[in-house]
Amino acid sequence: WDETHFGKMGSYYINRTFFFDVHPPLGKMLIGLAGYLSGYDGTFPFQKPGDRYEQHNYMGMRGVRRYRTFCAFLGSCLVPFAYLTVLELSKSLPAALLTAFILIFDTGCITLSQYILLDPILMFFLMGAVLSMVKCNSCADRPFSALWWFWMSMTGMNLAGAMGVKFVGLFVVLLVGLNTIYDLWDLLGDLSLSLVMFGKHLLARVLCLILLPLALYMAMFAVHFTVLNKSGPGDGFFSSAFQSQLIGNNLHNVSVPE
């Protein structure tokens, strides 16, 4: 069912047809990009669940199958992400290997990763954010080093990715936020640390964990509205002034008073 839903939205991006959905745009944009790069032309109808892709032309069917390759790749990344996270937290190779094998043989994870769904994309960014946070914590003894900046920036980018796919990404934002508050509270209690240095730590976290994710999140919507410039099923959810900017809409290029 959901493959029909999100596959159709991938086609909307390829055809630049405006639509409305309850989820943020990043996941659908990545699905559309995967189809576009693999040669899919966006003409498969996705009318109902169970329709065979073999009824479509060869290039379109090949593109749809490449969707699965894209989602499966992101789903397969969960295994090394989990392995590295547990290894960093526990310093135990058996524990990390056990975690990796549990995910490798998890039927739900395998199933979710082989279809055109938002779930493997969401889980990729969720676990990427957790891994980046853990790696950044491990660099606490080397603040403001290149590696410290890298992992903190990666944490912010993954937070934006998780929020950009589904709003349930707020939970990993909460996790990173609580970790950051604990970290700053610990730094504030360090009497050997000057207030100026504490201010630098605070500004670094504001930059990487608040401003960077917000900028990336807004950029996703900027790309979304730039790409979808043709009239489609989502027109009616927006104002007449907005509809006048969509090619093919009855109000296109009509002067609409504010």
From TrEMBL:
Read off the InterPro entries from this record.
ArnT-like_N (IPR003342), PMT-like (IPR027005)
Q: Which residues form the ArnT-like N-terminal domain?
A: 1-229
* Highest rank taxon of the organism: Eukaryota
Q: Does the keyword Glycosyltransferase apply?
A: yes
An example Gene Ontology cellular component term from the record?
endomembrane system
Record GO terms (molecular function): mannosyltransferase activity
Pathway as given in its UniProt record = Protein modification; protein glycosylation
Its membrane topology is listed as:
Multi-pass membrane protein
Q: What is its main location?
A: membrane
Q: Which residues cross the membrane?
A: 67-86, 93-115, 159-182, 202-223
The listed locations are: Endomembrane system
> Which keywords fit this entry according to its UniProt record?
Glycosyltransferase, Membrane, Transferase, Transmembrane, Transmembrane helix
The UniProt entry's GO biological process terms, in alphabetical order, are: protein O-linked glycosylation
Family statement: Belongs to the glycosyltransferase 39 family.
Q: What is this protein called?
A: Protein O-mannosyl-transferase 2
Name the source organism.
Answer: Glareola pratincola
Q: Which gene encodes it?
A: Pomt2
